[in-house]
Amino acid sequence: MYKLDDLKYPYDALEPIIDKQTMELHHGKHHQAYVNNLNNAIEGLDLKANTIEELLKDLKQVPEAKRQAVINNGGGHYNHTLFWESMTPGGAKEPQGDLKKAIDETFGDFEKMKDLFEKAGAGQFGSGWAWLVLEDGKLKITSTANQDAPISKGQIPLLGNDVWEHAYYLKYQNRRPEYLKAWWNVVNWDVVTKRYKENLS
């Protein structure tokens, strides 16, 4: 059975970028619902997976009748867990070291990477996510629909931003590009850099 972990910061810690009410609803209600629905979907199944990562990497182990529920709710749980960990109040404003070098080599520089990421998020039709991922050892900007998780496609997510309306609508209404641009102020680059180093080999 999966569970919703507490945040490592208070609900109001990311203000004014993300408001307290949005964080309360997003974490306590939306994410909790994904966890509840995932647990209901896998109840009674004999699965090889011990972690959410193992489950999403090998969806064929899930009976077809339950598979879409696991994609939706397992992805929702996994994506949101990564999302919360990817933010912090007052963190480093840009990547450092090997990750910065890889970003510069892949995209030209950090500002160009941010622009591509924001365009991926703004251009995602309907609900979904914008991602910085590792694929075959190389950095890539991509987006996914709904709660589809990059690890189900063989990609390693380093950084993801939630562009479902519940992530930003109370503060930004229909101004998704404004939310995407403001969000960089709360990204936890220490965590993103750690993910990059751990998955580079």
Fold and architecture overview:
This protein is mainly α and 201 residues long. The protein folds into 2 domains: 20-85, Orthogonal Bundle (Helix Hairpins), CATH 1.10.287; 97-199, minor pseudopilin epsh fold. Helices cover 49% and strands 11% of the residues. The chain has 8 helices and 3 strands; from the N terminus they run H-H-H-H-H-E-E-E-H-H-H. It has a 3-stranded antiparallel β-sheet with strand order 2-1-3. Strand 1 (128-135) and strand 2 form a beta hairpin. The mean pLDDT is 96.
Describe the largest sheet.
3 strands, antiparallel
* Percentage of β-strand residues: 5-15%
Described by the principal axes of the CA atoms, the overall outline is globular
* Total domain count: 2
**Count of individual helical segments:** 8
CATH class of the largest domain: Alpha Beta
